[in-house]
Model the fold of this input.
Amino acid sequence: MEQEKTKRIMPSNRIVLGITGGIAAYKAAELLRLLIKQNIEVQVVMTEAACHFITTTTMQGLSGKTVFTDQWDASVPNSMAHINLSRAADAIVIAPASADFIAKLAHGLADDLLSTLCLARVCPLIIAPAMNREMWLNAATQRNVAQLIADGVQVLGPDSGVQACGEEGMGRMREAAQLARDIAAFFQPKILSGTNILITAGPTYEAIDTVRGITNRSSGKMGYAIAQAALELGAKVVLVSGPTALTKPVGVQGVDVQSAEQMFEAVKQHVGNCDIFIGVAAVADYRVAQPGTHKIKRSEKNLTLDLVPNPDILGYVANLTNPPFCVGFAAESENLVEYAEQKRRAKKLPLLVGNLVQQAVGSDDNELVLFDDSGRQTLPRADKLTLARLLMQRIAQRNNGVLK
Done:
């Protein structure tokens, strides 16, 4: 039942992945893999030039589908591959999109299969430019890109960095992982447009002295995934994060903190403007009463630390006079159902998300249990971004009054 419910919430989308000639074509293989992993059906179409950089055999092996390259393919019964492929797609993605192909699109040229099906499409078009920095900065390319944007084409990138030619600058194709997130985000309904969401994520670090501290094993992955999922639904997101090694999702307003007290101050600063508060951070329950102002020297004697409670950030937000819709997290090592429900009722939360730490901390996947007044619901084990999308759909429905 849970798997069937997941399929209904996360429907499969279909795209044509167009690959043009450029060294960045190698990234298309990883992009294809990531899209399929996100339950997106992919049909690959390659230009003749693309076949010089990556083979159709590779893309067919990854997609499990015949790769189309020829406008005059005799295997297509009606000889109208450009119509058949475009009509079957929810979107066409060109990655990489070379300078030459961008020029074709801007001027409506149709001299091969990929350019023809782009011209004949009735679905959205997304391109990921990739070229040498001078080609990208050339006035003709900039005019062509501006024309495509004016025509409603979505342009993802390019990014800046070291290029295959050895030069450095703008023109690198966006990395496959980011493109996969951008494409998945394109298909998400913008049901949280106009909604402000405040999220805490990651661990906190409580200083013992100038070089030592108390922290926990939280990676921040779940909180960052939730921030990404909220962005995909159209929300404005403020992400207050403890120390992590993660890159913040493109589009969030990031606030970096170290200690629980700093996180509390950041939350107080931003909570007045938020509609939904999601407390994912693993906030330390205690801090050292008087951290050392210098490094504490080692000795043979026992060291005793005086610990005092940290502020209850989630409790503070939930007990405001006009609180936002509050979602809490409970990471337990045992008795998850009992302890999570106790926490939800004690803090008077409309929704609490629970998980077992031994299954979640540091991992890329997880299993979540949602607790509310109607009981509990399990989101079966999946990667954290998939879970975050399912959770944000649930939060959006609750916040909009769809679910009671």
Remarks:
- The radius of gyration is 25 Å.
- The chain has two domains: 12-187, 196-399.
- The chain is about 35% helix and 25% strand.
- The domain at 12-187 is CATH 3.40.50.1950 (Rossmann fold).
